Amino acid sequence: MTDVFTSTHWGTYRVEARDGRIIAVKPFELDPDPSPIGQSLIGALTHPCRVTRPMVRKGWLEKGPAGTGAGRGSEPFVALSWTEATELAARELQRVKREHGNEAIFGGSYGWASAGRFHHAQSQLKRFLNLHGGFTASVNSYSYGAGAVVVPHLVGHEYADAVGCAMSWDQIAEHSKLVVMLGGISGKNSQTEAGGVGRHRLSTWLRRARDNGVAFVNLSPVRSDAEAMLGAQWIPMRPNTDVPLLLGMAHTLVAEGLCDRAFLDRYTVGYPRFERYLLGLDDGVAKTAEWAAAISGVDAETIRGLARRMAGTRTMIGASWSLQRADHGEQPYWMVVTLAAMLGQVGLPGGGFSFGHGSMASVGMPGERFTGPAVPQGQNHVRTFIPVARIAELLERPGGTLDYDGKTLRLPDIQLIYWAGGNPFHHHQDINRLRRAWAKPDTVIVHEQVWTGLAKHADIVLPATFGLERNDLGANTRDSDLFASKQVVPPFGEARNDHEIFADIAEHLGFREAFTEGRSERQWLAHLYGGLRRRHQWLPDFDEFWERGHFEIPESSGKVLFAGFRADPETYKLSTPSGRIELFSERVAGFGYADCPGHAVWLEPVEWLGSPEARRHKLHLLSNQPVGRLHSQLDFGSNSLSRKIAGREPIYIHEKDAAARGIASGDVVRVFNDRGQCLAGAVVTEGVLQGVVQMSTGAWYDPVDPAVPGSLDANGNVNVLTLDKGTSSLAQGANANSCLVEIELWRNDLPPVRAYDAPRFG
Questions:
Q1: 443-448 and 460-463 as β-strands: parallel, antiparallel, unpaired?
Q2: Is 60 assigned a catalytic role?
């Protein structure tokens, strides 16, 4: 079978198969910079870690749901027929609903389950659970949790979307003179996109900007956060100190008369309150460049010089998503908006601020937003929810409360977790804490293709298909291509599509017809495409599109953020309470949160190189996105495995830190703190700041002794180390990048990596 498109989160490929196996994966010919991750599809569908049959944990099956959760992750599984497994799942859903109510069911699907728009596990799960009466939900994301909450308070709710507060690359390439990158702009992150990627265009735009004379500055502890081709000036700085650095620049603007007060008066509210803080009129501490230098490690003259340079030319201040995945992660974004307003360039082409360039393939790409097809999810009649990064807290403290964005959330008593898509045993921070909390609910039901840590910590595991084993529509909101993502091979083993699994369980529960609406897979695709075509009438009819396999969407020029607002702030008011940029927010101040006051401030992280904890754990760990996979997807694939060191996840360490510990490149090391420990393969480099180590997320959870919480992780899962604490009471976002560790050479026998092995059966 040749010339069949398949759409994935990291690109679109033409796939060849023979006898049910993938033999070749070729990038879409119009993709200028295809991702090599697609090569991991070869061998993935028939890998020994596939879940081939419905499985049930033996202890849960024999003893019943109550009180057996401690066996998750260590007990064997028993195979059942599909009829037995779906009946079992249906009975347990009925029992929990009857005895505890629907809020006791947590619908845990998260994120990157499928690139297809119909076989999108999260949508299928929510549709199913809503027809069952509802469920406790999660909101926001690990990637952009703090930003999604704080940005609407500053510039309006229409900018809450993770990709909606970024100026388009055509405007930057043509009009910017200087791009100051806090956290860099990384090509590895822009390999991926929810909904699929047709063309990877970041490198094209970066080259165009560079060739047009745009200068780039990389403010980051890691040199590779900026693409080498940019020739960016690297200013290494201590992690989590972006706010002091920006405050030092802001103080320079005020002290040297470079602040655009006319812009502040017309377009913002609250600046005088912030300036009192900046000048130290209330706390006695002026936030000078010297003050900032002592905290950030960047010398004062460099701070002053960059502030003058920014004030003297058309400047874009870009902040990566990684900045807000830290303690008080709301503050760097607030301070970026504040500094950009002081420069007075917000609303000008190529000027102002942007969030997330390089974080996903679509961020900053020109063109109108393309509203892709989506499975209707129905109405959730349960009102309880949590920010997604607070799952462990939800399970630990039933009946407790949680502050969130001016609300007090009540934490329900979760008795059943239903998870389809995503892997919290990669995504969540402090996995050892999560594992303890995960043992508390009566039942965990999971759809999975492979034996991830999530599947091994479930009670009922239902085998799901890969994208190559089903038909779908591939599209994202900012791409120029729409794809017919066609089935290439039959499902492996007894795997079924998520929609089929839910339909069978719904039949036991009495609402199959309501769930499927009587449509087959093909009919659902035609139905969803029909809704898309009504919005975009230039699309061909479904049969023609499906036959062609690909349709190119007309592009248009990109947007200048806040251009209308700048032109006429009365007609084009922002959706903030004042209608203007809120440098001081009365609403946020009114929440009374000590950890997130009403304007941008420097609040020390709980863990950073200036904290007392750094006397014991002397290295600041940054856990970024991997190069060879998307999160934990296909960690067992060839592209991911080729980047391992001695079979372990790499950790990058400065040569002086390595020398002090007797570590050389290629050594296996133990990385540890009070939360956990893992093995990693050392890469000694000058590309990270001294005192900083960098290790990517996504290595599958692999405790040497699954029965012992806190056991050494053999594969290098960085989230056994990270801190599970909300960014603040405002957003309760993920806090992965405020993390201190220590490293030592591993001198014992190396434990085998068993992460990709199936569990015991019996």
A1: parallel
A2: no
